[in-house]
Amino acid sequence: MIVNSTGTGTLGRVGQFMGSPDGIPCMADGHVTIARADHRTLHPRFSYYWLVSQPFQEYVYAALVVGATNQIELNRERLGEAPVPLPPLEEQRRIADFLDTETARIDKLVALRLRQRDVIRSRQRAHTERAMGECASGEWTRVKYLLRVRPRYGVLVPVFEDAGIPFIRVNDLLDLEGRASGLAQIPVTLSNQYARTITRRGDVLLSVVGTLGRAAVVPEELVGANIARAVCSIRLRPDVDPSLFVAWIATSEFERQALLATGSDSAQPTLGMEDLSNFAIRWPTDAREQASVAGQVREGQQIHSDLVRRTDRQLALLAERRQALITAAVTGQLDVTTARPAHDRDL
């Protein structure tokens, strides 16, 4: 078994190594811990389910240490002392067989919901592209002609403190309004060194390093914040609707141009400000039509976003069900010898 030992979000994540397809030996780096079951007393598949169970995950977070660089890590000595339930091997095998069947059923539902979410997002993109493509006053132009000033990268090397200026990073763009109150903060003096990227009302923020294309309009409560190096500030002309511009960033036309501009990057893709300024965009030149198109796009986004939220809620419930089932089985709360197969319960 492989247990992720550093970082946040994925700390404690467990995987089973089944061997490389070509038989070439593999090595693990220092960010993971190898856990090898003693087959005389512990069934490998049972050990996997124990490692992903709720009691073990709680133990993982009780065994944390923080390194000299503030990197969260697992204390491996305490990890090795983690208690493991040891029912007879035959019972471990029965539990593992039961969980193999039940989790496969849940995983199939998860895969269907993920596919459904992808379809919803594809339809949202198609709705935006159709609305922008069919506008009568639409004319091709360069992004730079829609801007007040050139796009700017943010703070190169941030320093964090408890009471300072809100600092917006790439992942924050996924839900900028929802995360506004919990953002990391940087010193006022550091923010002032990057005064050109201090946020203003109506600014569009775009991820330009690594994960390209995440975008959001600066909400009122984050006016005066600053941004990371992997985020750029786009300050539009007063007559350019920022929400419609953000919607365009989610289209296949923006994606195509971003791929062309970063296709030669040998490491993580980085979108240059000059390249971004020269992207071609079909923009409605008539103010009334621009407002109408923006309204159509926002209405479509609302409908599709509601559907995505419902799908995400279903995915969360499936994850909770999977975790609860595993925990109940490996801790003896569920007697798998009397549990009916899934196909019987569906009748």
Summarize the structure.
By secondary structure, the chain is an alpha+beta fold. It has helices at residues 44-51, 54-62, 76-80, 89-133, 176-179, 188-193, 242-249, 252-262, 273-277, 287-330, 342-345, and strands at residues 2-4, 14-15, 32-34, 64-66, 72-74, 138-142, 152-153, 165-168, 184-186, 204-207, 215-217, 226-227, 231-234, 280-284.
Write the layout of secondary structure elements.
Blueprint: E1 2-4, E2 14-15, E3 32-34, H1 44-51, H2 54-62, E4 64-66, E5 72-74, H3 76-80, H4 89-133, E6 138-142, E7 152-153, E8 165-168, H5 176-179, E9 184-186, H6 188-193, E10 204-207, E11 215-217, E12 226-227, E13 231-234, H7 242-249, H8 252-262, H9 273-277, E14 280-284, H10 287-330, H11 342-345
Parallel strand pairs: 8-12
Antiparallel strand pairs: 1-2, 1-3, 4-5, 6-14, 7-13, 8-9, 10-11, 10-13
Helix pairs in contact: 4-10
Report the CATH topology name of the largest domain.
Adenine-n6-DNA-methyltransferase TaqI, Chain A, domain 2
Q: Mind summarizing the main beta sheet?
A: 4 strands, antiparallel
- Tally of separate domains: 3
**Cα distance, first to last residue?**
36 Å
Low-confidence stretches: 342-347
Q: What would you give as the CATH superfamily of the largest domain? A: DNA methylase specificity domains
* Percent in helix: 40-55%
The proportion of residues in beta strands is 5-15%
Class per helix and strand makeup: alpha+beta
Order of helices and strands: EEEHHEEHHEEEHEHEEEEHHHEHH
Strand order of the largest sheet: 7-13-10-11
**Mean pLDDT across all amino acids:** 86
Radius of gyration, in angstroms, nearest whole number: 25 Å
Put simply, the count of helices is 11
CATH architect. name of the largest domain: Alpha-Beta Complex
Dominant shape: elongated
CATH class of the largest domain: Alpha Beta
How many β-strand runs?
14
